[in-house]
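// run 5 | inverse folding | seed 20
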């Protein structure tokens, strides 16, 4: 358990560091060019996810996302006793990564975001993005294509930065972590409850889609994510 929780903490911290650090860098190097800033942020996140899932997948499953952990438990691939510890270390890791990113770029360690993302479009985007992510992972695992998950997840999230107006957080842990940066990648604390609620709804939609696609529970496979 120690190894698994350490891997989830470190992986989640690096995920937040990649998302927030690349956002700060893009904002500094390409000021007032939001399209280019988003492109840099998406490319760095997609590439970073590929690496993180590849190296931590064999240790912990590389979930880095409480919703991924919960769905793996629902599909009987994951012990119920690990669900809460995973969610806790994933969230703590994302917060730690956010603070580290701030310090690395000369910002205060805690810098509350003022970037409001509270609209119907943002909510719908998080439902769609989260459902798509979870279905992508599950269908690949069902097809015994575990080796394709790192590239698929990285590619999906990079593309979702552009097709979703929310830029596809799709992860309650990283949503909490991104409160702590007042940068391009941040989200105001007041917007967090709506985002997480939409992500939970997205997980429910994913379960419905998987049922409609005749993908039933299985004890086989190892899972990963973003």
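// decoded
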């Amino acid at each position: 358990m120690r190894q698994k929780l350490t891997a989830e903490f470190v992986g989640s911290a690096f995920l937040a560091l990649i998302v927030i650090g690349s956002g700060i860098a893009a904002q500094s190097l390409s000021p007032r060019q939001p399209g280019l800033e988003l492109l840099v942020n998406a490319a760095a996140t997609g590439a970073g996810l590929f690496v993180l899932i590849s190296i931590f997948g064999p240790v912990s499953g590389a979930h880095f996302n409480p919703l991924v952990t919960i769905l793996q438990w629902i599909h009987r691939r994951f012990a119920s006793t690990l669900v809460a510890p995973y969610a806790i270390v994933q969230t703590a890791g994302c917060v730690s990564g956010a603070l580290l990113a701030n310090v690395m770029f000369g910002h205060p360690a805690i810098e509350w975001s003022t970037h409001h993302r509270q609209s119907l479009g943002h909510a719908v985007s998080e439902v769609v993005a989260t459902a798509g992510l979870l279905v992508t992972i599950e269908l690949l695992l069902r097809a015994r294509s575990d080796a394709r998950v790192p590239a698929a997840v990285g590619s999906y999230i990079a593309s979702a930065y552009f097709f979703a107006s929310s830029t596809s957080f799709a992860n309650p842990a990283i949503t909490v972590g991104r409160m702590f940066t007042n940068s391009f990648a941040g989200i105001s604390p007041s917007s967090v409850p709506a985002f997480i609620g939409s992500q939970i709804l997205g997980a429910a939609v994913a379960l419905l889609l998987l049922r409609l696609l005749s993908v039933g529970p299985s004890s086989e496979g190892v899972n990963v994510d973003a």
